[in-house]
Each structure stands twice: as structure tokens, then as C-alpha cells.
Amino acid sequence: MPGQTFAQKALARAAGRDTCAVGEILDVEPDVVLSHDNTAAIRRIWEEFSQDRVKHPERMAITLDHAVPAPSAVHAQNHREIREFVGEQGIVHFFEAGRGICHQVLSEEVVVRPGQVILGADSHTPHFGWLGAFGAGIGRSEVAALWAQGQLWLKVPATMRINLSGAMPEGVTAKDFALRIIGDMGADGGLYRSIEFAGDTIHAMTLESRMVLPNMMAEFGAKNAVICPDEPVLTWCLERLAMRHGIEAGSSAWADLADGLRKNCLYPDADCELESELHYAAEDLEPYIARPHSVDDVVPLSELGQVDVDAAFIGTCTNGRLEDMSAAANILANRRLAPGLSLVIIPASSQVLEACIELGYAETFARAGAMLGVPGCGPCMGNHFGVPAPGETVISSANRNFRGRMGTPSAGIFLSSPAVVAASAVAGRIVDPRELD
């Protein structure tokens, strides 16, 4: 039998097995079950199981993030019901409105760790692959079943490995690489596949840049995506866990925690069977744009032509981290938005927001004329503040641009990196940030 891929190892472990085959159906017990503002709706499905208690409250993680602060009485009531449910069930991993987007917050809190399996009622749950975890999005009914029974059947996905080597050109980001992949192979190019990212360029990226890749693979149709954990990831997890538990660096407890993290990591075997393998040279990449109304309608920014914009948005679970805020602040410093253009900037978490304030980014955004929002998803899914007007053109750092995604079917959404969004907000048209100089 050939060696095991990451996905095979992760799902076999979660099913209490040593090995498994691609295509096999396994009864999996995830380490973490994620939900957000949809928890109230999931609860109503769960109640059909006629149970008083969820099976594993310690494995549940709930974040209020999709409509915060509540924009209507309906949303406020929804949040209230979730808070009551959390209290009734004794759910420890609950994060209030304003803490931030579920994927960012659970990463910051190290609720999810390398080698674990997390299933979530959010399509971007593959995000946790940046930690070396198996993350997959599932439906509300499936989450309700997990609350009731603690396990769910999954088919073991085949693996596509994507290699990136060489030095990234100046101005090219992980978002550009993700768009290039989706543009090359289509929005269904990774359908129900496990995507393994590999190559020296991947591991040379900052941790925040790495997060973009598995997150965007949800737009590629992937079941999960992963970057195998290395020392920077393990150090990041170790330091945050130690701080939370009051463990002193260099102590025996520190060593035990580090050893536990390392032992739980999973890596594909050298002789594992891949369904396909792609190779990219970083030097060949450039800034890319996804045009309305499909994430795979991707062109190089240099070939886009003149596109005027009415509104801009920087944020989401894809590009709302501190390095994204920094990129935007560097461009907006001592500049103003184009007349008549609105720019909404929403940090992915309260920790990112606090850093923006401490570093002066928040002041830079305000002086430029941008609006700074409460950490959360914002207008990304079109049910919260910041939706575009009919017929407007939006440049966004989000992950999706299908018709109506931001709440207005006649609006056109272009996707790009945060730096391109910020530069375009200043120029009033989609531009390469280097053009501003």
C-alpha cells in the first residue's frame, strides 16, 4: 500500500484508524466544530434530535461575526438566542460580537492546532490548513448532527499538490498566487480535493500570507487545503498557548507543551499517491484581478484596462490581517480617497484592530477618508453595513464576487490584494500601487 497523504492521515486519525484509502467513507470525530451567527438556526435543527445536551460542548466553537453589531432587531434576537444557548450548554469557546471573524479568532486563540480536524458551518473552514489542520466546510444539518452524535461520515479526498518556488516579485502577494491558481484551473478545478501547498516560497511567506492560500481554496472547490507545519507555525502556537496558560518559557511545562504540539503534527509520506501535481515559478507571477461575476475570471492587472470604481472594501477572513492593514496604511498615508469614492476597512479581529490603533494605522485611515468598521465579516456576504448601490463598481480584498454577493445584484465586484484596493481607492480606478509613485 502506498504512503498516506495528509488528508488520509488526518481523517484516519479522526476515525480511530491507522490508515485509510482515497475514496473511502469514514465516520469521523472532529476535534472542533465551528459555527457563527448561524448557530441559532442550527440549534433549531438540533432540537429535532430531542436532546437536552449537546454531546461534546468542549469541542464546539461559536463566534458572533457575520452581522456585528446587530444591524436589525432580527439579528439582535438571533445573537441573544445564541448567548442563551452557549450558557445553557456550557460552551467554553464562545467569542462575542466584536472579537472578530471566526477563522481569524480561532487561529489567534489556538482553538485549532496542527494535526486536528475541524468541521465548520462556514465554507471557508479550509482556512485552518495554514496551521497544518484539516479544515472543511459542512452544512447546518451536518453541524446539528455533530452536536447530537459527535461524528459525521466523510469521503477521503484525493490530493492535488501545488508547488511554488523562487522569489516573489515586489508587489505580488499570496492573494495573487491564489487568484492565478483559480484563474488557471477554474472555480471547480479543485473540487472535493485536498490541496497540499509545498515549495520553498510557501514556507518563506509570513504566517499571515500563508493564511490566504487555504482560505481561498474554498473558491477552488477544495474539500480542504493545507500547508504542512514548520517551526514558525509551531512557535506561534506555542507562544500563544503558553501565554494563555501562564507557562514560563524554558520551563518543563513549556517543553511538554512544545512536545505535544510537535507530536500531533501530520506530514504526507514521501511515497504518497497524488492525483495531480502543479509547479509554479514565483518569478512568473504578477498582480491579478478577478473580474465580475466569477472568481475564476482572472486577468493580470497589467492587462485589465481602464476600470473606474465607486467603492472599495478591505477586510474579510481572506485579507483582514495586520499585514493587510499595513499595506493599506502605507498607501493611504498622506493621501485622500478619490472624490465620491467610499472605502470601508474592517480588521479581521479585535487584536488586529488594537494593533492598528497602536501603530497609527487607524488614524491614517481616518485622515484618508476611509471608514473603519467593527471586527467581523462586514459587507462581504451582503447582509451588513457597507453594501454597494445598484450599478456601482467595487474593488474588494474579499474572496467572492458572484452576482449579488455583497447584497446588490447589479453591482460589479473586482477582487484583488489589499494594496491594489487601497491604491485604487486613491486613484478612483483600478491601478497597480506602483503607479501612484
Sum up the structure in keywords.
437 residues, alpha/beta, Aconitase, domain 3, five-stranded parallel sheet, 18 strands, globular
Indicate the overall shape.
globular
> Major sheet: order of its strands?
4-3-2-5-6
Q: How many alpha or pi helices?
A: 15
Structural class by secondary-structure content: alpha/beta
Q: Could you give me the name of the CATH homologous superfamily of the largest domain?
A: Aconitase, domain 3
**The CATH topology of the largest domain, please?**
Aconitase, domain 3
Q: Give the low-pLDDT segments.
A: none
Query: For the terminal residues, how far apart are their CA atoms?
Result: 57 Å
Give the rounded overall mean pLDDT.
96
Total number of domains:
2
CATH secondary-structure class of the largest domain: Alpha Beta
| Percent range of helical residues | 25-40%
Main sheet specs: 5 strands, parallel
Tell me how many strands there are.
Answer: 18
Give the C-alpha Rg.
21 Å
* Percentage of residues in DSSP E strands: 15-25%
Quickly give the CATH architecture of the largest domain.
Answer: 2-Layer Sandwich
